[in-house]
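INTERNAL AUDIT FORM
Audit reference: QA-55
Scope: verify that the stored structure record matches its stored sequence.
Auditor: D.O.
Record contents follow.
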Amino acid sequence: MKKLLFILVLIQSILHAQIDTTQMFRYTSSSVLKEGVYLTFDNFIKQKPIPLENIRTANKETNIENIFKQKVFYYTDLSGLTKEVESRSIWGYVINNALFVYYNKDFFRVSYLGSIAHFISTQTIRNYVNPYDPYYGYYYPYPTPSYETTQLVQNIIDFKTGKIYPFTPESVLALISDDNELFNEYSQLKKKKKRELMFLYIRKYNEKHPLYLYQ
């Protein structure tokens, strides 16, 4: 599975290696993102959002976070037509220069944006309890009781493709594979060091391969 992940990401990196930056700007922490809703990843790269003032809901909600808690919302396109969109189908939105992406049934803020971006999401895990019954022993004859817990999960986004991967050494190695110098450095580290230096190598990669967005 890890080898398959590496091969898939490497192929995608090669396909997206050539980028025409003549009509693009280099993203930095001081850059200003266009505010609005991005239906797709490509819309974000091209900086073509739906303006927030063009969005409405059936109950006339105005708070942006509450809008996306609705099942659907509506917007007016350039031709003046009203279109319906499922909230869970959009890629993300930008408000107050912060990017939020849809993942695992919710929107999460991207805390670090670059060619390889980082964000923290939540994940619900169902835990099963196997109660001991003195008559049946550990083989309880009734449905096993369970409970849910929520935990924080770190993720990274490959901004060459828009795909989201778990924040693991294997993912980092795959995403920096088009930079031979960094790839060789990182691949030679001990397993413990790989885990400790994941974010450092993401930063190194982003410094050498900055994120470009359209003007």
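Auditor finding: record pair retrieved intact. The radius of gyration is 21 Å.
Action required: none
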